[in-house]
Amino acid sequence: xxxxxxxxxxxxxxxxxxxxxxxxxxxxxxxxxxxxxxxxxxxxxxxxxxxxxxxxxxxxxxxxxxxxxxxxxxxxxxxxxxxxxxxxxxxxxxxxxxxxxxxx
Length: 104
Prior knowledge:
Keywords: ATP-binding, Magnesium, Metal-binding, Nucleotide-binding, Nucleotidyltransferase, Toxin-antitoxin system, Transferase
Shape: globular
Structural class: alpha+beta
InterPro entries: NT_sf, Polymerase_NTP_transf_dom, Type-VII_TA_antitoxin
Number of helices: 4
Order of helices and strands: HHEEHEHE
Organism: Hydrobacter penzbergensis
Cofactor: Mg(2+)
Strand order of the largest sheet: 3-2-1-4
GO molecular function, one term: ATP binding
Largest sheet: 4 strands, mixed
Distance between the termini: 21 Å
Strand content: 15-25%
């Protein structure tokens, strides 16, 4: 496992440098939310939370699991992956409102 990303700038850099690989899992857009949106909330045990949008026909269990494994190795942290379609509740709307798109 890679050294832990420590802040938002490191996170965004790692993701942008690995965009081709991330897109190979069928990802069209990716958003970060939670503690990594605001650097001051990041703790040593913080995971990284993402909302994913897949290209048409690319969303699959294997792509989600394999992307999660790849990101955990890349970032040195646990990750939590949600699909945009799963965010229909009020909580989901709050997550989307507080998320930031990642450039991949």
